[in-house]
Each structure stands twice: as C-alpha cells, then as structure tokens.
Amino acid sequence: MHLRPKIITSTIVFLAAFSISYIAWELRRYLTQLDELARRMQLEAIAWTYVTGFVLAAWFGVLLTVLALFSHSSSHWPFKALLLASPFLYFLLEPIRAGWLYYLSRRY
C-alpha cells in the first residue's frame, strides 16, 4: 500500500502552506505598524517585485515550453515540478524586492 508517501507529501504541503500564510500575516502586521512613507515604499516595492516575478515566470515558462518542444521525451515533469514549486520561487525574488526598496528609498 502506498498511503505513507501520500500522507508525508500532504503533511509537507500543508506545513509549507501554513508557513507561507504565517509569513504573509506577519508581513501585514509589520506593514500596519509603519508610517505612511515607509508603508508606501514597502507596498510599491512589493508591487514591482510581483510584476518582475510575473514577467520572469512567463519567460521561464516560454523557455520550458521551447525546451519541451525540442526534447525527445514526451514527459512534462518540469511543468508539474514548476507548478508545485511556484509559491516557493517567490522567496527567490526577495533580493529583487530589496533592490526595488533601495531604488525607491533613493527616489523619495
């Protein structure tokens, strides 16, 4: 019976979702404690990071599609792995958010 790997996978996915939700909740609490200018800069940096991540994900999807078209196997496992990992890929955008924050702090 293959029930044990499914339970482990479900537990890991649940813990990951719970962790991401907790981080988002704490970020919301942090943002509500800031003054108006700092909150505006943080929210604008988050917005630009979201747009940057969306564009990078779209181009990464194009790259994976092109690679899948020219590969000799018909397996689509990279797409499934990317779909499952997509919430975690936004953690890789944290340096980009820091860059946007730096840019915005120089602008204001």
**What structural category arises from helix and sheet content?**
mainly alpha
* Major sheet details: none
The topology string of helices and strands comes to: HHHH
Could you give the distance between the termini?
Answer: 61 Å
In DSSP terms (H or I, runs of 4 or more residues), the helix count works out at: 4
Unreliable stretches, pLDDT < 50, 5 or more residues? none
Q: What's the number of extended β-strand segments? A: 0
Could you estimate the helical fraction of the residues in percent?
Answer: over 70%
How many individual domains?
2
Average pLDDT figure: 82
Key features of this structure:
108 residues, 2 domains
Fold topology:
Blueprint: H1 3-32, H2 36-70, H3 77-89, H4 94-107
